[in-house]
Amino acid sequence: MRIFAVVIAFCSFIFTAHAQDTLSKKRLDTVIVKSAEQLRSGFTRLKDVEGTAIYAGKKTEVIVMKNLVGNKATNNSRQIYSKVAGLNIWENDGAGIQLAIGGRGLNPNRVSNFNTRQNGYDISADALGYPESYYTPPAEAVERIEIVRGAASLQYGTQFGGMINFKMERGADSQKVAVNTRLTTGSWNFFNTSTSVGGTINKLNYYGFFQHKSGDGWRPNSEFNSNTAYASAIYKLNERLSVTLQYTYMSYLEHQPGGLTDADFKADPRQSVRARNWFKVNWNLGAVAVDYHISNKLTLNTRFFGLMASRDALGLLTFINRADDGSDRNLYIDHYHNWGNETRLLYQYKTGTALLGFRYYSGHTEREQGYGNDGSGHDFTFTPTRASDSLRYSRYVFPNHNTAIFAENIFRVTPKLNIIPGVRFESITTRADGNYTNVVFDGAGNPIFAQKITDNKRNSRSFILGGIGITYNPVSFLQLYANFSRNYKAINFNDLRTLNPNLRVDSNLQDEKGYSADIGIRKNIGIFNFDVSVFLINYDNKIGSILSVDTARILTYNLRTNVAQSRHIGLESYVEADIWKLIKGNETATSVTLFSNFSLINAKYIHSKDATIHNRRVEFVPDVVFKTGVAVRYKKWVGSYQYSYTGKQYTDATNATFTDNAIDGLVPAYGVMDLSAEYHLNKHFTVLGSINNLSDVKYFTRRADSYPGPGIVPSDARSFYLTLQAKF
Fold first, then answer.
1. Quick count: other Cβ atoms within 10 Å of Cβ 553?
2. Are 193 and 72 contacting, i.e. CB atoms less than 8 angstroms apart?
3. Residue 105: pLDDT above 60?
4. Phi/psi at 515 (nearest 5 deg)?
5. Can you tell me whether residue 387 is helix, strand or coil?
6. Is the sign of the CA dihedral 584, 586, 591, 597 positive or negative?
7. Beta-ladder partners of 355
8. Is 379 helix (H, G, I), strand (E, B) or coil?
9. Cα 719 from Cα 212, distance rounded (Å)
10. Partners of 300 in beta bridges
């Protein structure tokens, strides 16, 4: 009832503000309607049809990067995603190397509950079997970020969270050569430099970008070095046909300080008790796309994409409440070789729009787990010093294939009413072929028996996902929308076997199934914009973590299993208004924009046979997420202030508040402030600055059972950044 009371109260505010918006427009001789992008709010939503995709009836959000006032050099997630409702953000590192966001009570880890794309194609390690994103597109090279919630499953595949697409910059259409270079320095020896070159020569549009960043990090043992490059060429053969080539390269080496216990964090959150943990990633991503406007009504898009990448993790994953004994370190090495094609055909007819699509995806992951040496450097080789550690080794190959056919249609029933049904057929085959060694130790820890075990698994399944959306425009400035869709998520490679002492996996783990629904009201025209909605996500057999005890060894660990049916319901509201223009009228160049982003989420396990789980809160779900801020534009100055609040959350299904090894427990509520400013000296030069965590709050956003932990992962203290930008 409280949720509906909030909705009703907000609706009354909507019409009051719209009246003010209308009055301000009547001051002009000619009514001028501007989009959110033109108003420079930096936030808007997708059109009903864009390119060869249908977004009508879905909850969508678009972050326009050129209008963002924030710290782009560090990919600061709090500022970049500040207007996206209901996001829980994990802060793994202060450099923004890895993105970790989750919506509506879903695990934020490496964006694994979103279908993550760049320019419309997959960028995660394995979109089907291991959808974690070790590569994050640099904010300085991104044109806009598009987010579609749970109903995206019909067009983009098996994810409950939806789809997030990073649309990269392209060359300037009006210049043959345009150069943009940025130099950033900041706290703890942070250094970032990036340069882009682009333009249009005859029929060729080209764009190239390179970024280097390095720093020491706030905590000891946190230094990093990262390089990212991106290139794009679009050749327009004629007015109807164009071909696009794109390539992305990223590599980084990161020293990880490990986690802390609750007592260590309280005593000194900056300390590090692990000095031998390292993380290395190498990413190569390529794509070829063809766009063909067959006629004014019929458009074809086909894109081929491929990934060759690796991820190496080296470090001590023993319980963080035990001192580093100098033993051999855990070593995990992955190699990813994936390719796929997605083809879409869009037909515009008099009373609607039809979309037909096809997708094929082939993933191949090679995974080795064992032990490295007992040193402190970044030697990513299986060279353990103890003979027993050389026995504990596993090697797996994970081939998987996915074929999908999908269709969606907008039926324009009346000028005000649209009905959008959709259907998707999925065929999935996953395999695990490998071996591991089972070692038995005596009481003194010496190996007395070793057996090499071959492990081969195969799982094929086919299913149909269906859904429907509705939009209704009672007046031109207002839209009501609703949607319902089935969702599905396959188990990950990490859910098959692991050598992590903090984590064990249920051998009978099953894929997740369920559905999601939205109903909301939104406005996105003029100087007052909003989107208010309620949502429901239902998991029939949600995969989660249960705090468990090994009584024989007197140890606690996380058991990853199908916990129970879970239900996520909530309210999401985003409101933004240019107060100055509401008062002074659209003709003024000055702008004072206020925004509020507020979410209430109730996610619980229901219908569980386990009394310790029934009616418990789902892990990683803050009950409240609130962000608010103001942006001021005056002559050559631009400034922004933002406050972010995230409510308390638990890290396992039993809702444990404390464990000795700190992998489970309460994540307390926290509030953080950020301040940014820009001064445009002239059309070529700009000075930008940011203060992140303005009030120097000591807080943490996650507890990890693996890297970058285990244990509590503290967030950065107050930091300062200064950027010089030159455009020619």
1. 9
2. no
3. yes
4. -155, 165
5. helix
6. positive
7. 346, 408
8. coil
9. 19
10. 292, 345
Which pLDDT tens digit goes with each residue over 302-357? 999 999 999 999 999 999 999 999 999 999 999 999 999 999 999 999 999 999 99
Domains of the chain listed by start with CATH number? 36-727 (2.40.170.20)
Percentage of residues in the chain having pLDDT higher than 70? 93
CB 89 within 8 A of CB 75: no
Burial class (CB in 10 A: 0-12, 13-18, 19+), 19: exposed
The residue type at 402:
N
Partners of residue 337 on adjacent β-strands: 308, 364
Give the other-Cβ count within 10 Å of 210's Cβ: 18
DSSP assignments along 275-340, one per residue: -SEEEEEEEEEEEEEEEEE-SSSEEEEEEEEEEEEEEEEEE--S-TTS-----PPEEEEEEEEEEE
Which token pair is 667?
């994540």
In this structure, what token pair is assigned to residue 622?
């803050």
Kindly give, in sequence order, each residue whose CB lies less than 8 Å from that of residue 256, ignoring residues fewer than 6 positions away: 221, 222, 274, 277, 278, 279, 315, 707, 708
Distance, in Å, from the CA atom of 685 to the CA atom of 228, rounded to the nearest integer, reads 24
Structure tokens at 495: 């859910």
DSSP 657: S
Outline where DSSP puts E strands in 508-590.
512-523, 528-550, 555-578
- 71: nearest Cα among 192, 181, 164: 192
Contact 320, 710 (CB under 8 A): yes
Sequence-separated (6 or more) residues with CB below 8 Å from residue 420:
54, 56, 57, 408, 409, 410, 411, 468, 469, 470, 471, 483
Tell which residue, 701, 539, 658, 687, has the closest CA to residue 606.
539
Beta strands in 155-276 (DSSP E): 163-168, 178-186, 190-201, 204-215, 224-236, 241-256
Q: What is the pTM of this model?
A: 0.93
Residues 94 and 74: their CA atoms lie apart, in Å, by 7
Structure tokens at 306: 């491929």
Q: Are the beta carbons of 70 and 583 closer than 8 angstroms?
A: no
Length of the chain: 728
Helix and strand numbers (H, E) in the chain are 6, 37
For residue 12, the SS3 value is helix
CA separation for the pair 213, 92 (Å, rounded): 16
Look up residue 30 and give its two tokens.
């000619």
| Nearest-angstrom CA–CA distance, 724 and 728 | 14
Exposure class string for 660-674: b at 16+ Cβ within 10 A, else e: ebbbbbebeebebbb
